[in-house]
Write a structure and sequence with these properties.
heterodimer; A: globular; B: 4-stranded mixed sheet; about 50% strand
């Protein structure tokens, strides 16, 4: 039971952290709960579909279907998070003026909740499909009773959700006037980390050159397998032994999103609600 | 004579193009067999990871940047390299005690 709990926890952790960050980033927006819950629900449904089609996906495109799929959905999530930041910057001034109350665009729920919901759905889908594949196989193998499995899975899910709640309530302790600046930076780091993960999948598929297979090795300091290592992997894209191409993707994503927020997102939208 | 040379040449030319036979790693009873996998350094190597267990595994390696789910009684292909000589650890992410090394020489 413990084994199942640990595996489920590990997979849930990443998705739960992203949900926690997104919840904090959409603090005070009406109906955000429904959107985020919808994203989680869609992610769970997608995870089951992906798990069902896992053999087909793995075999697709001469055996690199898995890698292409993972890289594709990760990059889609990067776009969603990037769009969120561009939008936030556009409305940043308005929000700064209304530090106590929330800005009208936010209050009216104009914030691109759909982009955040899609990012959440993708995170849940990716981690969830591995949980489904794993739990399904131990159920079929009859290694554990369904009750033990459900208990272990439930425990892992609860612990993972706890971590998501912890980061959410931790972020909410930040004064409102700084909260969205902090969450925007956090979202930027999460997006850059996802881009670096996508690069690793494209590297695995042999579609990109490694540009140095291990730029550095800090696994003796902080292993990616440790709890803190996993948390930082999700939040800032920490990698103990990154390939050069991962760093390129990481930096390019940062520069691109920052550049877009400074250009497209620059004009403060005073009356528009887009 | 000409034919023999041509045949020898063809063999010589064809050999590098013929990718080395894939190196098979089998997952059995939560062990990698073999647990130490010798591979040539400096060249691309095809790994065939077979899962003879009844439970799903995930072949993963931080130093090689690889992670791929292997279905029960399934197999996956993973290309690695060209690698510098050294030891590269890999493991089953769904059962982390299950570990092995690629030894590139």
């Amino acid at each position: 039971m413990l084994a199942a709990a640990i595996i489920v926890f590990r997979e849930v952790l990443e998705a739960a952290l992203i949900v926690g960050v997104v919840m904090a980033a959409s603090h005070g927006v009406p109906r955000r709960g429904r959107w985020i819950a919808g994203g989680i629900g869609a992610g769970v449904a997608g995870a089951i579909l992906v798990a069902l089609g896992a053999d087909g996906i793995a075999a697709a495109v001469s055996g690199i279907g898995d890698e292409l799929f993972n890289a594709g959905v990760l990059l889609a999530a990067v776009c969603m998070l990037g769009w969120h930041n561009v939008w936030m910057n556009r409305h940043g001034r308005e929000m700064a003026h209304a530090a106590d109350r929330l800005g009208s665009a936010i209050r009216d729920g104009a914030k691109p909740l759909w982009a955040l919901a899609i990012a959440v759905a993708i995170a849940v889908l990716r981690e969830g499909s591995e949980i489904v594949l794993f739990l399904y196989s131990i159920a079929v193998a009859g290694e554990v009773t369904p009750l033990t499995m459900a208990a272990g899975g439930g425990l892992g899910l609860l612990a993972g959700a706890g971590a998501g709640a912890a980061i959410y309530f931790g972020l909410l302790r930040i004064p409102l006037r700084h909260l969205f600046m902090v969450t925007s930076w956090l979202v930027l780091f999460v997006a850059a980390g996802m881009a670096s993960q996508a690069a690793a999948f494209l590297l695995q598929a042999d579609l990109l050159p490694p540009l140095g297979s291990n730029l550095w090795d800090t696994s003796f300091l902080l292993s990616e397998q440790s709890l803190l290592g996993r948390v930082l992997h999700t939040l800032i894209g920490y990698s103990a032994q990154p390939a050069g191409i991962q760093l390129v993707f990481y930096a390019a994503t940062m520069l691109l999103i920052l550049g877009l927020t400074r250009t497209i997102g620059r004009h403060p939208a005073t009356s528009s609600r887009n | 004579m000409v034919r023999a040379v041509a045949a020898a040449l063809a063999l010589f030319v064809a050999t590098p193009a013929l990718a080395q036979a894939p190196v098979t790693i089998t997952l059995r009873d939560h062990q990698f067999v073999p647990a130490e996998v010798p591979i040539p350094a400096g060249t691309k190597v095809e790994l065939l990871v077979r899962n003879e267990q009844t439970v799903t595994a995930e072949f993963e390696s931080n130093s090689l940047h690889r992670e791929k789910v292997v279905a029960p009684n399934g197999q996956i292909t993973v290309f690695v390299g060209p690698l510098d000589p050294g030891r590269y650890e890999f493991f089953d992410d769904f059962n982390q005690q299950t570990r092995g090394f690629l030894v590139a020489k």
